[in-house]
Amino acid sequence: MVHFVGAGSGAKDLITVRGMNLLKNADVIIYAGSLVNPELLEYAEDSCEIYNSAYMTLEEIIDVIKTADSENKDIVRLHTGDSSIYGAIREQIEQLNSYDISWDICPGVSSFLAAAAAAGCEYTVPGISQSLIITRMEGRTPVPEKEKMRELAGHNTSMAVFLSSGLTKELQDELLTGGYSEDTPCAICYKVSWPDEKIIMTTIKNLHNDMVSNSIAKTALILVGDFLGRKYNNSKLYDASFTTEYRK
């Protein structure tokens, strides 16, 4: 059995209880070593076999799983954050299905959630933004034409930009071309929930310069939108004049 486990955003104690227990009971762990906090491996038993997938191809990962599964071992495939976001699990699942290997998924705390917590913000502020776009800049991995950054920027809503720390000059240009103003607030969220976490509040105009001046070129999530600013409106949820099923 293979358990795809979301490791959380970084901190050892931000994995779910279910995920922690799966690590404790695992016979084999294959973890995304370039991003997953190695402290999470401390939950594993000393006898557990551990593989770092940063050095492995898809075929090598599947080979390890096939061997372990044939020996009735419990396998954890440990991904950063939540595996549903840029986790590359679909290609693994298709392979597992072709070999009749059982699997399930344990969700994790994505970095876009940890980033909002660290920045002390809410993505869906009434009257400001009611939608969140999770996306990335086009780099070596292409994006569909309708999902180019400038197209998405036209919505002027809340945005969490993954995997784009090395492309902030291009990101800045695309956001402005798409319709955001130069003074739109941004947050550079570097290694959120890790000991060396940094949250840098800036604007689109200063985004690239602030990345360079802070020597950040990877492992940062970039938040964009007016939800980070000073404007806000109270919700109707607790408005005394707003009737609900529970409050007349």
Q: Kindly name the structural category.
A: alpha/beta
N- to C-terminal distance: 51 Å
Low-confidence stretches at least 5 residues in length (pLDDT < 50)?
Answer: none
Spatial strand order of the main sheet: 3-2-4-1-5
The backbone outline, from C-alpha atoms, is globular
Biggest beta sheet summary: 5 strands, parallel
- Helices and strands, in order, run as EHEEHEHEHEHEHEEHE
Question: How many separate structural domains?
Answer: 2
Proportion of helical residues: 25-40%
Using DSSP, what is the number of strands?
A: 10
Protein name: Precorrin-4 C(11)-methyltransferase
EC number: 2.1.1.133
Enzyme class: transferase
Family: Belongs to the precorrin methyltransferase family.
